[in-house]
Amino acid sequence: MRFVLPALLFACSTPPEEPPPIRGAAPAGTPYEPTFRRLTESQYRHAIADLFAVPGEPSDGTAIVLPANLEPDVAVDELLSLGSAVTTISPYGVEQYETAAFQVAEQVLGDPASWAHLVPCTPTAVRDDACARQVLEPLGLRVWRRPLTVAELDALVDLAGTSAETLGSFEEGLEYPLALLLQSPYFLYRVEIGENGFFTDYELASRLSFFLWDTVPDAALLEAAAAGELTTETGLAVQVDRMLADDRARAGLRNLFTDLYKLYRLDRISKDPAIFNAYSPELKASAREETLLGIEHLVFERDASYRELFTTRITFLDRGLAALYGVKAPARDGFGGVQLPEELGRAGVLGHASLLMLEAHAVSSSVTKRGVFVRTNLLCQEIPPPPADVDTSIPEPSPDAPTMRERVAVHLQEPVCAGCHRLTDPIGLGLENFDGIGAWRESENGAQIDASGDLEGYTFTTPVGLGHAIANHENLGKCLVDRLFATAVGRSPGRGDPLLEWHEEGFENEGQRVLWLLRDLVMSPAFRQVGEVR
Amino acid sequence: MNRRTLLRGVLGGTAVGLGLPLLDCMLDTNGTALASGGALPVRFGLFFWGNGVVPDQWVPEGTGTGWVASPELAPLDPLRSVITVVSGMSMRLPNIHPHSSGAAGILSGAPVLVDNPSSFSAPSIDQIIAAEVGGNTLYRSLQTASTDISGLSFNGPNSKNPAESDPYALYERLFGPTFVEPGGTAVVDPRLGLRRSVLDAVMGDITTLQGRLGASDRTRLDQHLTGVRELETRLARLQEDPTDLEACVSPDAPLPSFPDLEGRPQLQERNRAMAKLLAMACACDQTRVFGHYFTEPINDVLFTGASAGHHDLTHNEPGSQPEVHAITVQCMEAYAAFVEEFQAIPEGGATLLDSCAILGATEHSLGRTHSVDDLPLLIAGSACGQIVNGVHHRGVGQDNVSKVALTLVRACGVLLPTFGVDDAQTSDGLSEIEV
């Protein structure tokens, strides 16, 4: 589902320039050790949908039903993508993979259109090794993202044969090699080890597709790998440009920002409907979609600076969000693009209900949570945990302290608290015009809310002003580079890595355009070279 | 045989590797054992709730058998003869990460990981026990929750056993089509054998791949291999006739869903549904180890009657915190309801609970300050007569909480010389609650 904005919204944007094919030489860096990442739940679901999509039929991921529960992903250093490189799978998770594998196999092999697509031959007997081989060789390549060895293919064909004989059916017999392909570590993990210090063509195909598309390589990418093109500069560039122009790059971008902003947490928060009348569980899903559509629009439709994500009044609303924000719904059904009126006082992603309700309590806003989010996830500044054994309570509202500003003043006076709260609370206070689900308010307990403050010397008086302060913060662009670099290579980059700094400078010089950055990162030596296995 | 004497002798010397048989309830109170002639196993359970208590409302007056239920322990008063209350114990490691350090220290005796504070650095108590006794049953352990959370069961660093929070999904897993009641015969299905062949091949792939990976990734795949091997063993057992267990019957299916009501989760209902299933899983000897997470550390759950989320209230409710107190009472009601489901199943002339030790724990005492002193702890069941029930033990001088864990680990038949690391390490159990 894509949304076309009214033409007036584009009046101020310039058409995107073609990025230069290859930029100057990268500084020498120490290659990162190989990673061994398990597919995230999102990648697993995308992979199944893409692997078994039938040409000519909708491939929106609804075709194949998967179990509701798979092993949950864990964030490490704030990213699920980094957690996937260090966490293990539990016995229950293994069991869930087995259930899912057979569930997929049964659906895929039981559907006539899907069968016709996967099985190019007519079996001549219950056991027909030649026909099984014709099915499993191309399927194995796509599922494992590399050609199968002779021994691997022989074993799969034999499993198909013995299963068919046991069950008296060629069709049912195929379920077992298919379930094996889907339970094997060659599918569930990304085996990226490299040869002679460089990732191989097939490894690069996987790295590209999971980073840019959040799914498995398509046929064209595997063909490019087979032809040895991905290990050449120009061959790689051709594929990267093709991939970034493909709709799947939107799914990839949505995944990157869902991880970066931890939007997946929206599934787990709850709000008190007695306090927030406008709240409903559906509002959470709408709020997430607003943010993802906004990012998609900024990156793909406008190719605009990342800074603008924090200042733009363009956004995408459905009826529920429009009512929450106090504007006319831009579309009768679903989402529509809208430019929020300036007098509304709401702009940028920090005016989105998604982040405002995530960084809040069940019944109220939270200046500290909002401040920690901006510092940690947008500016990559480390905020230590609060010391234990300290009374963390703040005073109740009172005539002397009606708004949060007066109440959290105690944080800023206690020396043990002030060190960190001086960093977080002034940011959160700048967003106090938004309540715990993101609705606007002028006052709290009868007193006018004062949203003024300053961020590293940049003063502001409103939430919109805070957005500009963040947009102009020197860490904003660097932080995005750091986080996307980490996701691309599967490891937190070392501070002072000359390659990281090279990408940071490039991003800044190129006007903080995210598409440019994605391309720059996958063309990078950091993405193509690999250190020794330890 | 005096088991404790034997353990002491062993642990005092060097023969830690001595193969003591899995501790079973040798005989029931009537001098008979199970209908099948076997002995009852000891079961370990954890019931965890998040965000602590209001200590001056939780700690009971009086010690020994004469304790008087405090306001927060009132829901447990009817169960006093089958529970043990422990207070006055301390988590002795640095309390660096509020909530996380306490949870890891109490449940594993070790700190959280430096580079990932959401993970323990050592196995949690349930997995220490499961590693020894879990191989005897279909499931090494079961992990469940009353809210949509992943729990605190760790095999080691970055290796969690996530909890199931959907009672119906747990029911399907344990008592679905593959379940056969005692006295029945295993279903003959060639598909089980084929699924096992697939798993054998998966194990082959894992082993081959391990040779190409670095040490830490090999270890990660070891964990994967363990999971596949357990599943393969489970499929093999499904092909065998079930053991004759007197207390094992197929339970009723729980409700298919427990939607929030008025924006508040149906915690108590989910809790009871999970307890019924876990109790029957034990009675059917599908597992001997479980962890149940009523709520988790830092949870901001909207409890019935509360004006804000739990965590929010622990920090921001002024004065004596009547709302936090009321929530703690609800947590204790949940523990009581949980334990009652084990007590409701007769087994070996007594109840299922008698063979259990169900540790009730939370990550700290007073939520407002994250204090890890004077920790609230509960044990339900006597682990086949090894734990003194009916008493309140109050530790002196902020005694080491690891002693409680070591007592429980040993009661479950695991010969562990010490529990915990650094200042949390102990080689002694809490002898005052050991029979």
Helical coverage of chain B, percent range: 25-40%
**Beta-strand content estimate of chain A:** under 5%
What ranges of chain A have pLDDT less than 50 throughout 5 or more consecutive residues? 1-16
The termini of chain A sit apart by 45 Å
How many H/I helical runs of chain A? 24
Pair of chains with the largest interface and how many residues each contributes? A-B, 68 and 75 residues
Average predicted confidence as pLDDT of chain A: 93
Envelope shape of chain A: globular
Radius of gyration of chain B equals: 21 Å
In spatial order, strands of the major sheet of chain B run 5-8-3-11-12-4-13
Shape of chain B: globular
Count of helical segments of chain B?
11
- Main sheet properties of chain A: 2 strands, antiparallel
Q: Count the strands of chain B?
A: 13
Molecular structure report:
The complex is a heterodimer of chains A (534) and B (435). Chain A is mainly alpha-helical and 534 residues long. Helix content of chain A is 49%, strand content 5%. Chain A contains 24 helices and eight strands. In chain A, the strands form four sheets. Chain A has a two-stranded antiparallel sheet with strand order 1-2. Chain A has a two-stranded antiparallel sheet with strand order 3-4. A two-stranded antiparallel sheet of chain A has the order 5-6. In chain A, β7 and β8 (458-460) form a beta hairpin. In chain A, α12 crosses α13 and α21 runs parallel beside α23. Chain A starts with 34 loop residues before the first strand and ends in a 6-residue tail after the last helix. Chain B is an alpha/beta fold and 435 residues long. In chain B, the strands form four sheets. A seven-stranded mixed beta sheet of chain B has the order 5-8-3-11-12-4-13, with helices on both faces. Chain B starts with a helix and ends in a 24-residue tail after the last helix. The model of chain B is unreliable at 1-23 and 26-37 (pLDDT under 50). The longest helix of chain B is centred in the middle third of the chain and has 24 residues, at 215-238. Helix content of chain B is 33%, strand content 13%. Chain B has eleven helices and 13 strands. In chain B, α5 (167-175) packs parallel to α8, α6 packs antiparallel against α7 and α8 runs parallel beside α10. In chain B, a hairpin with a 2-residue loop joins β6 (154-156) and β7. Chains A and B meet through α3, α6 and α7 of A and β7, α6, α7 and α9 of B.
